[in-house]
Design brief:
By secondary structure, the chain is of the alpha+beta class. Helices cover about 50% and strands about 15% of the residues. The protein has a three-stranded antiparallel β-sheet. It has a three-stranded antiparallel β-sheet with strand order 4-5-6, with no helix packed on it. Helix 1 packs antiparallel against helix 2.
Length: about 170
Amino acid sequence: MGANRSNLFSQHLMEGLLLIADAIAGLSAFNSMLEMARGLKDVNDAAIRNLAVVELTEKIIAAQAAQTALIAEVAKLEKELTRFETWETEKQRYELSDVGNGQLVYTLRDGQQHSEPKHSICPSCYQRGQRSILQKETWQPGRAQVFSCHRCGSAVYLSGMPAPEHAKYRRLST
């Protein structure tokens, strides 16, 4: 779990450094455009001046497009960071519990219920940074009692044994 967090942090750090490099390159392009604009005042030939204006306009449009892309990337990274921070807070409300026969789920810690009923969430989804409440179901044949995850299809057997026919019960939400 710590390695995943470290890898995610490293990935975000690299993306941030690339954004900084792009911003520096953008500043360099603006500096180049400023120098071109200053040079225009000394150009007496209208054709040369018009060509320089066209080049400057193209550079301005390219710089605006790059800035728009950078703004979109920053917004995407901010959204991802918010999701990551929200999950870090949410997952602290749960603890790993053995529900019997070595079957593990994450259950809501005592005192963390707020307005929710006591419940358990899927350990597979938890590891992927998602909260998916397990549903208690009875599967035939064998009247197996299971906690079923409708997000990933995982099943935690509380009693009874797995049977090939149980595959039809593994519903996934869309």
